[in-house]
Specification:
The chain has 368 residues and is an alpha+beta fold. The protein has three domains: 85 residues, no CATH class; 129 residues, no CATH class; 120 residues, no CATH class. It is built from twelve helices and 15 strands. A four-stranded mixed beta sheet has the order 2-3-1-4. A three-stranded antiparallel beta sheet has the order 10-11-12. It has a two-stranded parallel ribbon with strand order 5-8. Strand 13 and strand 14 form a beta hairpin. 41% of the residues are buried. The model has no long low-confidence stretch (mean pLDDT 95).
């Protein structure tokens, strides 16, 4: 294998036995190629046979081709994460084997937590369990004595028949990612978990600052990732390319997490995850389902959206036409031309292990 096909790098001298033991446990070691070069790095990739199962870096059907059931089997989910991540179309540097393993663990956590999340969609409602309190200055913070991990789970993962709390899709994606980072920090970097706990006791980090502190973005509009290159645990944006309906707050696009197996999280109906097709059709029909409320504000009739989606999915010709229109790379922001809803980038958490954590520096200093 040529090094240009091995775009995951870790420094020479890294703890390769840690990774090799995991690959052997998962029975995927025969599909992984490791090359130690003279550039100071160990290069990781997948075999030519495995790359052939992901033509043009299309990972959506890989689980089906390998008969992996990542939705119900943790090891199958880990297999899909490793094989898609190690077929990266862009260079990814990890500072250690431990950091690469933690990145995979967080991706598993995100996929699992996103699949369990069930919420009410609302862009402005202020509603959380009793473990949380709210002010405009702090956002939602933890009530003293409340565990960050358990409070996040309670807010997002109700038991069957339990109360659902109101979220926007963007805030929901933040909670899923924060929970998943905190779970891994508990195992590999307890000080990071302590600092996250202290942070959310004082002030929530959200929106643009959350992106800056916690996330890396891969790809750009100018140099997009392959349209169907997804690794379980990616945070993904589907854009609404229709300017009029984008005026409805919360419908500028849709933030989801990739669950693996060609499925994306559905925070409002967790037993009905999206595919690329169903997501494209849903966003397309937003343009047909807006109305103005008594205050003149643009709103979305979700019942109408659902009915139109079902109607289109039942009509193969209409389905193909809508998919062709939407299944295109999106235009740049503020441009509404011939672009579709597919994004050029993916988002993934930053480093978390004690030796290389680049999240802590973005947190507020704890009070003495």
């Amino acid at each position: 294998m040529h090094l240009q096909n091995q775009l995951i790098r870790i420094p020479t001298g890294s703890n390769m036995p840690l990774l090799r033991a995991e690959w052997k446990r998962l029975e995927i070691d025969e599909h992984i190629v490791v090359t130690e070069s003279d550039d100071g790095f160990v290069h990781l990739g997948v075999s030519a046979e495995m790359r052939d199962l992901m033509p043009e870096f299309d990972t959506i059907d890989l689980a089906a081709k390998l008969k992996l059931d990542g939705q119900n089997n943790n090891d199958d989910l880990l297999r899909e994460i490793w094989l898609t991540l190690l077929n990266s179309p862009v260079l990814l540097d990890f500072p250690s084997a431990e950091e690469l393993q933690s990145s995979v663990n967080i991706r598993r956590n995100i996929a699992r937590n996103a699949a369990r999340t069930l919420l009410n969609f609302h862009t402005s409602a202020i509603e959380r369990p009793s473990e949380w309190s709210y002010s405009e200055d702090t956002g939602f913070v933890l009530v003293p004595g409340s565990s960050l991990i358990e409070s996040l789970r309670k807010a997002c993962q109700p038991e069957p028949g339990g109360q659902l709390y109101s979220f926007s899709c963007y805030r929901a994606s933040e909670y899923v990612i924060l929970l998943s980072i905190a779970e891994e920090a508990r195992e590999c970097h307890p000080e990071l978990l302590r600092r996250l706990q202290k942070q959310w006791e004082r002030k929530a980090i959200q929106s643009g600052r959350f992106h800056e502190v916690f996330m890396n973005e891969l790809g750009t509009v100018e140099e997009p990732l392959p349209m169907h290159y997804y690794v379980p645990g990616d945070r993904v944006w589907f854009r609404n390319p229709d300017e009029p309906s984008e005026d409805a707050t919360g419908y500028e696009g849709s933030w989801v997490e990739y669950l693996g197996g060609g499925l994306f999280s559905n925070f409002w109906k967790r037993d009905a995850p999206f595919t690329v097709l169903s997501k494209c059709i849903e966003i397309y029909h937003w343009r047909h389902s807006t109305f103005r409320d008594a205050q003149g504000e643009m709103q979305m009739d979700e019942t109408k959206v659902e009915a139109l989606v079902a109607e289109t999915l039942a009509d193969p010709e209409a389905c193909a036409q809508v998919y062709e229109r939407m299944h295109r790379m999106r235009d740049p922001l503020d441009v509404y031309a011939g672009g579709g809803c597919m994004d050029a980038t993916r988002e993934t958490p930053k480093f978390v292990t004690a030796a290389h954590c680049d999240i802590i520096q973005g947190l507020d200093e704890p009070l003495a």
